[in-house]
Amino acid sequence: MKEMLIQTIKNLFSKPETVNYPAEPSPTPPGYRGLIVYDESLCIFCTKCEIVCPPGAIRFVYTDEGEKKYNYNPYLCIYCGECVRACPKAGVLVQVEETAPPEVSLPDWDSIEREADESKKRFLSRKKKSLNPSKKRTSQ
C-alpha cells in the first residue's frame, strides 16, 4: 500500500506518457495506408471504386441529366485501398499518409446513401426505357 501511494505521488509530478491529441499530432504507425484523395478532373465516373468498396464509403449520386457526383466518407473508410487498385485511370484515387481531420462536418451519410440508391434506380429505369421503347400495336 505504501508503494502504491509513493508511485501515485510520483505520477502527479511526472510528464504524462500519452500524446496531447489533437494539440500534438499522434505519430503515424508503420505501414499506415492513409487517407483516400480524389481528383474529379481525372475521373471517368466508371463507379468501379463504389462497387469494390467493402464498407460502402464511396457513393455516386446520379443527377437528372445522368451525370454522377462522387461522395466519400473518410470515417467509414477502412483504408484497404481496393478503390485505388480498381480505378482504371491512374491518379484519380490515391492514398496519402494523412489521417482524417478530427472534426469535419460531413453531410448526413444516411441521406447520401438513400439519395444514391434512389437516383441509381431512376437512372437505370430511364436507361432501360430508352433502350427498350414500347411498341404500340395498331389495330386494323
From TrEMBL:
Cited PROSITE patterns: 4FE4S_FER_1 (PS00198), 4FE4S_FER_2 (PS51379)
GO cellular component: membrane
Keywords assigned: 4Fe-4S, Iron, Iron-sulfur, Metal-binding, Repeat
Superkingdom as given in the UniProt entry: Bacteria
Xref: InterPro entries: 4Fe4S_Fe-S-bd, 4Fe4S_Fe_S_CS, NADH_quinone_OxRdtase_chainI
Biased composition (Basic residues): 122-140
Domain 4Fe-4S ferredoxin-type: 34-63, 68-98
Keyword Aminoacyl-tRNA synthetase: no
Region (Disordered): 117-140
Pfam families from the UniProt entry: Fer4_7 (PF12838)
Example GO molecular function: oxidoreductase activity, acting on NAD(P)H
Coiled-coil zones: none
UniProt protein name: 4Fe-4S dicluster protein
Organism this protein belongs to: Thermovibrio guaymasensis
